[in-house]
Structure formats: structure tokens, C-alpha cells
Amino acid sequence: MKYSLLIFLLLLISCSKELNFENQSFKKTSSLDCKENCPTIELKIPVAINSGIIADSINKTVFETVKSIIDFGDKPNTSTNYEQLATSFIQAYEKIKKDFPRDHFGWEANIEGKVKYRSENLINIEINHYTFTGGAHGYAGLRSLLFDPETGKQIPNETLFKNWNLFQVFAETKFREKFQIPKNQPINSTGMLFEDDIFHVAQNIFFTQKGILLHYNPYEIAPYVDGSRELLIPYEEANDYLIKK
């Protein structure tokens, strides 16, 4: 009986320390000189729990990423949590509104994170974001954050592959096939905007059930009006290059 109780307690302790995620939401709205469609910021964030420094490491990276998306001022944003971050966004709007009361503009920020993929070797968190702070249009995009579940540290893209340079060559071949760019022509010959006319793998690599997804946000390799660009490489083709999945 005592032995069974001990096993139960050990299992309970083990489960309590297992890395999990809970969704948390934060929302702030300005009421300054506003009756409808008031400037609003809404954050929906997956927060890691239970695993001490592993969870802390993941949460810190996610927070800093969200802060970098919202932070657009001249001075660094000193917020240390999501409540402060949301408040700072509304305060920035209200300051500008007070300085320029006759101008009509609305601000908006919507950021939603989710655990897109999880395995024994990595955790992939997607940050889907849209911000508008005046101008012709807002900006929408996706961020991919890859973590080692054993340490909570972010995984650099290059370390996902056995040979980064060989994968880049392979990815360019697949990219040219999808977007019908002739092999003997520069990568920008059909209207792409790769820097220095040299192909590069997307900064945001997502792991899906079907394969790895290279996601290029608007402006990265094409005009804004063309939107994002994506290349899905099935695992049966990517496995020869991948170290982790």
C-alpha cells in the first residue's frame, strides 16, 4: 500500500512539472474622444507553465517578440508584462491624439499566438499579428518561434538542418519551381524583391503536419500589394536535410 502511494505521489509530482501552455488574453481600449470603433489592442498569448526555468525562457522570448511588434516609438518600451504593454500602446495613441486633436486616425493592434506544432524535439509557436497606427494601411504578418522543449531556449533556423547551405540550394530550387522562375534567370527576374537579387530562406519557418513551411511576410521579398509568399516542403522531401522535427 505504501509502495503504491509512493508511485502515485511521484507520478503526480512528475505531471505537475510537465511543460504545458495556457491561453491568456489582454485587452485595452481608449475612450478618449471616441464613441465607436475606438483604438483597441487585444493580445491572446500562449503562456508556458509548470516547468520553471524552461517555461520562463519560452515566456520571455514570446513576450520580447510581441513587444518588438508593438514597439514603434523613439524610446525603448519598458513594459515588463502584457498588461503594461497593452496600456503603453493606448497611452501612446492618447498622447498623439492630445497633441493633434484635429487629426482623425484610429489605432489597432491584434496579436494572437498559438502552439502550432509540438514534438519531443521542438515546440513551434506562431505569432499572428496586425497593427495599424495611421497611414495608408496596417501591417499584418506571422512570426515563427522555435524552442527546445528540454531547455526552453530558442532554436536558430540554421541548426534545424544538417547542412544549412545545401538546404538553401534545395529550397531555392523548390521556390523557383513553385513561382515559375527560370533556373538560368536572376531570382528577381519575375518581380521578386530579394535583397541583392540573392535567394534566402525565409526567416519564419513553420512546422506543420504535412511539412515545413517557409513563410515570407509582406515587403520581405515582394511588394505589399502581393501579400505574403509561402513554400511548403513535404517531410518526405525535407527529411534528408532536417535534424529535428
Task: Describe the protein.
The longest helix has 18 residues, at 53-70. Strands 1-2-3-4-5 form a 5-stranded mixed β-sheet. Strands 6-7-8 form a 3-stranded antiparallel β-sheet. The chain starts with a helix and ends in a 7-residue tail after the last helix. Strand 6 and strand 7 (211-216) form a beta hairpin. With 245 residues, it is of the alpha+beta class. It contains 5 helices and 8 strands. The chain has helices spanning 2-16, 53-70, 82-99, 164-179, 235-238; strands spanning 20-29, 40-49, 108-118, 123-132, 139-147, 204-207, 211-216, 229-234.
Oligomer designation: single chain
Protein structure class: alpha+beta
By DSSP, the count of extended strands is 8
Number of helices: 5
Binned, the helix content reads: 25-40%
Large-scale geometry:
flat
Task: Give a short account of the largest sheet.
Answer: 5 strands, mixed
Question: What portion of residues belong to β-strands?
Answer: 25-35%
Would you tell me the overall average pLDDT? Answer: 90
Q: Unreliable segments (pLDDT under 50, ≥5 consecutive)? A: 4-15
